Amino acid sequence: MTYAHATAGNGSPHTASHTAEDIAHRLRRVRRLAWILDAAFRLPGTRFRVGVDAIVGLLPVGGSVVMGLVSLYIVWEAWRLRAPTSLLARMVGNVLLETAVDTVPIAGDLFDAAFKANLRNVALLEQYFGHTAR
């Protein structure tokens, strides 16, 4: 197989055909990551959950940018699974919106904790691939 054939589509030689098991495994992995980023910790005395994203995002500007880059990993996995461009665009939009608003002190941090772009993006992927949260 030539490089051109191996990388046809999205540039990855490993995405020619994904088995249902492979897709399920990748979705479980990105769901775990999204949960850590968006909902790993329950605020005491409430039912509200926050994740590492909201905590690191408290650092002025830099924290938001770093977490935005981490959030793009989920989009990258979606790209590797050959999700359609429209879905990828929506996922990138979620990450960009959360990252941009999170740069605003206090109000942005509250938005970040409530919006949960990573869990939204995983839900979009699961919906597209017909999987439910497990």
Automatic annotation (TrEMBL):
Domain of life: Bacteria
Bilayer-spanning residue ranges: 54-76
Keywords: Membrane, Transmembrane, Transmembrane helix
InterPro entries in the record: DUF4112
Protein name: DUF4112 domain-containing protein
